[in-house]
């Protein structure tokens, strides 16, 4: 699938995923670097006190999972050789495992 594909619904879905993954990366990096959750996020998600004390853990894993989604969508939106697409898929899987490991192992 590429941007020249005749089905505009799939292109729109993939572009929405790209925008959401960029937002996940930006918010995750902001939380991990600043050490504070946005107040709206705390209210909506109803984070417990133990969860609020771990912004680097939650923000970092969110940023890695957002990067995973972004890398996963690249072969579908940009024309590239098959081997490069497979390589990006493996990189996306490694990012997903790293994000899950970051969340599971980082305790501060």
Mean pLDDT: 85
Element pattern in H and E: HHHHH
Q: Any idea what the shape is?
A: elongated
Helix content: over 70%
> Number of domains in the coordinates?
1
Structural class, from secondary structure content?
A: mainly alpha
Count of alpha and pi helical runs:
5
Rg value: 16 Å
The biggest beta sheet is recorded as:
none
- Quantity of strands, as a count: 0
Bin the strand percentage.
under 5%
Low-confidence stretches: none
The termini sit apart by 43 Å
Protein name: SdpI/YhfL protein family protein
Organism: Micromonospora reichwaldensis
Transmembrane segments: 12-33, 63-82, 88-106
Keywords: Membrane, Transmembrane, Transmembrane helix
Put the structure in a nutshell:
The protein is mainly alpha-helical and 108 residues long. The protein has helices at residues 8-34, 39-45, 49-52, 55-77, 82-105. The chain is elongated, with a radius of gyration of 16 Å.
Descriptors:
108 residues; mainly alpha; 0% strand; SdpI/YhfL protein family protein; transmembrane; membrane; transmembrane helix
Would you give an account of this structure?
The radius of gyration is 16 Å and the shape is elongated. It is 79% helix and 0% strand. The longest helix is centred in the first third of the chain and has 27 residues, at 8-34. The protein is mainly alpha-helical and 108 residues long. The protein has one domain (8-105). This is SdpI/YhfL protein family protein.
